[in-house]
Automatic annotation (TrEMBL):
<dbReference type="InterPro" id="IPR001387">
    <property type="entry name" value="Cro/C1-type_HTH"/>
</dbReference>
<dbReference type="Pfam" id="PF01381">
    <property type="entry name" value="HTH_3"/>
</dbReference>
<feature type="domain" description="HTH cro/C1-type">
    <location>
        <begin position="11"/>
        <end position="65"/>
    </location>
</feature>
<protein>
    <submittedName>
        <fullName>Helix-turn-helix transcriptional regulator</fullName>
    </submittedName>
</protein>
<dbReference type="InterPro" id="IPR010982">
    <property type="entry name" value="Lambda_DNA-bd_dom_sf"/>
</dbReference>
Length: 81
């Protein structure tokens, strides 16, 4: 997914702008180094709660991760089960 790669690239960009290593960030948000690497490379999707912890640690607004991401056409839920 292109969005996953863009989001991961932004995590890496903001981490580098803050001068933080992957090991430091992974430790700060309680994930393994390998997980962070997968997120940054766009090989794994990240949950909203973890992205929020990353944003708080890097001191960037969570909205900045989503700025200019391509819009998706999502199916509309009917509300029925």
């Amino acid at each position: 997914m292109a969005e996953t790669a863009l989001l991961g690239g932004r995590i890496r960009l903001y981490r580098q702008m803050r001068g933080c290593s992957q090991i430091e960030l992974a430790s700060a948000v309680s994930i393994r180094f390998a997980e962070l690497t997968a997120f940054e490379r766009g090989r794994a999707r990240i949950c909203a709660a973890l992205l929020n912890r990353i944003a708080l640690f890097l001191e960037v607004p969570i909205q900045s991760f989503y700025a200019d991401l391509p819009d998706q056409q999502l199916p509309i839920c009917s509300g029925r089960r």
